[in-house]
Each structure stands twice: as structure tokens, then as C-alpha cells.
Amino acid sequence: MPTLLSPFDLGGLALPNRVVMAPMTRARSPDTVPGQSMARYYAQRASAGLIITESTQVSAQGRGQRDTPGIHTAAQIAGWRTVTDAVHRAGGRIVVQLWHAGRLSHGRLLPAGQAPVGPVAGAADGATVHGYGPDGTPAQVPVATPLALDLAGMHRVIAEFREAARNAVAAGFDGVELHAGNGFLFEQFINAGLNTREDTYGGAPIANRLRLLLETVDAVVDAIGRARVGVRITPFGHLGGLGPFDAEKATWLGLAGALCQRRIAYLHASDLGPAAFQRDLRKTFGGAFMLAGGYTPASASAAIAAGAADLVAFGRPYIANPDLVARIRHDWPLAEAGKEAFYGGGERGYTDYPPYSASRTAA
């Protein structure tokens, strides 16, 4: 019976264990270029079976938060190369999460103050982003009203993801993960409550609302191969101003079936609601299945043992425990992370969490 510490073959990528470092925005790229501190941060956590990076914008238009990295310029690719080299030297494996925020953005984050984009011209009521105030200082700001993407704009998004995937390979990544959850662009198209377009990319038909994501998956697979591509979803998270909609379960199961046909490397899911739906989603996808969302070592081990997942992603535990795999293996206690350094800043609360030491813990 597999355990959390058993090896796993992920599309030909040999993982020494099933512990995944989940994608977490840490806002340490003020110029959108990964730096040396990011290389240290990820390399410290290289004992994970797999590292998934923080959300990384595929274009300047796709940015949704301040101080997040991109992968669409030569400088960004070079910066990420320092990260992947450091992780690989430490014996790790790393994929980049490719991201377009869609309507969850603000003009002061985007080129020339332009409006964000989405499936329709409807703002996310009550949603805010880490951006800049009118005086240019960091501030939490309400998202702007987006422009509805036209057909040329959607083709441009697909091309941006394709090019970002190629850039990821050039930067030394072992693969990519397309972010189709958390209320960002792809989920905005998937959500029938928001996406009321009257063309083939929206409305009631499930296939229409899945079209943008699936055409992007096809483009990325064509660029770098299916074994290097994963997808992240959050079916019942209802984040970023999105809410429940008709045929919700059928929509997500339809996506899982379509991704199964494409034989991508893995499906990464959280916010799955009832256990029965989680089982149906896993069965429908049929490939490597990764769960995330508040797991402890004990609950993750139970999920692996029960066959509910092949891999489990840990977020917050990885902030303060760079040696999480060793702590799980030896049943050492986990350190707690201070929230004040979650987003932005320097090395404090980022690269200064030490590995476990019995003497240090006693002190």
C-alpha cells in the first residue's frame, strides 16, 4: 500500500515521495523578476516530491497582484533559471504555475493603466487585490471593471500561455501547471453565473465555457508535451466574486473527462465539496490526482492510503518548515509561520526558517 513517503512516477518524472509544495504567492518579486532570495527559498524546500511555484503571470496583461513574478520577458526567464538550477542542484523537481488573473486586477498593475479583461464586462463585487494606491504606494485596492475579451483577445491569451510554457522549459522547469481556479481567468469563463457570452465561449453549454481552457491546454501540450502539463482547479471555492451556478457538478466532471482524454500529467484540486463528488472527479479524470487544502501529515497519509489521491500538496506548513518531508518521516513537530511575513518583504519570514533541531525546539 502506498504511503505519503512512497515514490511516484508523474508522467515520467520520478518523485521520491508524494509530498508536494503547493503554489503560494509570497510577493517577493517587486520588479516581476525572480531573484536570489527566491532561489534560496525554493532550494531550501527541494526535498518535496514536487514543488509548484507561486502563480506566475504569462503576460503583463495577466498580472493580478503586486510583486508577483512573470515568465514572459528575457529577464524573467533568466531569473527563473537561477531558481530551477538551485532546486535541481539540491536534488528537487519544480514546475511553474502559469497564471492569468483576468478580471481580478487593477489598472495600476497593468501596462499604461489599461483595464483588466474577462469573459464579460462585469466587475467582481467586493473583491480586492494587493496593488497600488493613487499615490503609487502599496495598498489593497478594489478590482477594476474589466473589458470583455473578443475573439482576437482570447486567441492572444492562448498564445501567451503557449509561449510561457516554452519559456518555462527554457528556464529549466520540469513542467507547468495551468491555474484554472481561485476565481481567475479560466474559472471566470467556466462559471455559468458570470460567463453569459452568446458566442461559442460562453452561455449555458458546458463545452462553450470549457473551450478557452481546453484550447489553451491543447496549445501548451502541443508546445511542450502532455507529460509536462498539469491543471489546477477549485470547483466549489467560489472565490473572486464567483458563486454557485446551474450544472456546476456536471461542468467540473465534464472538464475532468476532457482532461482525461488529453492524458495530461496530473489534475490538482481543492475545494471539492462532498466526498462523493471528490470520488467522482478522481474516477472521471483517471490520471494522477493531487489534493490540496488544509491537509496535515496525518490526513494526507490517510488520503493516500485510502486511494483518494496520489499526491497531496501542502501550503502553509511549507512556509515555516523547509524540511517538511524529514519532519513527516521522523514525526518531528511542525513550526508555525508568522502571518506578518506571508506577503512581501525580505528574507525575514521567507528564507530564515531553520530545519528541525531538537535542541533549538527545547530552547
Automatic annotation (TrEMBL):
Coiled-coil region: none
One protein family per Pfam: Oxidored_FMN
Residues in NADH:flavin oxidoreductase/NADH oxidase N-terminal domain copies: 4-333
Gene3D superfamilies registered for this protein in UniProt: Aldolase class I
Domain of life: Bacteria
Endpoints of the signal sequence: none
InterPro entries for this protein: Aldolase_TIM, OxRdtase_FMN_N, Oye-like
The protein, known as: Alkene reductase
Source species: Bordetella genomosp. 1
